[in-house]
């Protein structure tokens, strides 16, 4: 069926598959990836294959490669070749942010201090695209509606910006939810993050350290001056608040269990 689809279309087709990590333990899904792989290897004979297959939502494609590898299948020109290093920087620079703000200012004429906002947004996000857009979205849609502002012009100020940052930190976005889930799923990475945030230690950005490599791949960490540090101020604050909250909850649970044990012991002793 897939070969028929590719043959019947005049234009080249790109297939995008999301949430790959969620499906990689499903044998049907792995068999489907195997079919795509065979199509690619046989593309010159059959004349039909997708131009590209994009696997999104996967933290390490090597895991999938190992699961679908068939020793009897040809290995030349493998579509799962990941040897090439991806060097494209997808983050926004202050100049990129300024360009977007200029376009916004042209539409609304609010008198935005573009240089100040582009610098501040970058300082908090390090150009992380979602966070850049999210802060601007909060300023455009939410902050100006709150008491003390009343207009978009009033929201695009230093006070409004700080309010937008606070709203971003307290929001329940998929990004933050996924970030905290990964820290729960990878306790050693969690321990590394705690070392950086709670103890102020900046470990060497050793690419051979699996936890540092994982933290950089997830976008939690970045390399600066040979040190591994938090990727941006918003990630740093959000994770720090979560760690403090978790510690407080654990302390409350410990105190409650300790009190219950004392009460049980007193009852046993007839107190």
State the major sheet: 2 strands, parallel
Report the helical percentage. 55-70%
- Mean pLDDT over the full residue set: 81
Shape: globular
Q: Classify the beta-strand content into a percent band.
A: 5-15%
- Subunit arrangement of the protein: single chain
- Count of structural domains: 3
Overall radius of gyration: 25 Å
Distance between the termini: 77 Å
The structure class reads: mainly alpha
Could you spell the SSE succession in H and E letters? HEHHHEHHHHHHHHHEEH
Side-by-side strand order of the widest sheet: 1-2
**How many strands in all?**
4
Low-confidence stretches: 71-84
Report the total helices: 14
Q: Can you walk me through this structure?
A:
With 271 residues, the chain is mainly α. It folds into 3 domains: 2-68, no CATH class; 94-170; 178-260, no CATH class. Helix content is 61%, strand content 6%. The protein contains 14 helices and 4 strands. The protein has helices spanning 2-8, 20-23, 27-41, 43-46, 61-68, 94-108, 114-125, 129-141, 152-155, 158-170, 174-185, 187-198, 210-218, 233-268; strands spanning 14-17, 52-55, 221-224, 227-230. The chain has a two-stranded parallel sheet. A two-stranded antiparallel sheet has the order 3-4. β3 and β4 (227-230) form a beta hairpin. α8 packs across α10 (158-170), α11 (174-185) packs across α12 (187-198) and α12 (187-198) packs across α13 (210-218). The longest helix has 36 residues, at 233-268.
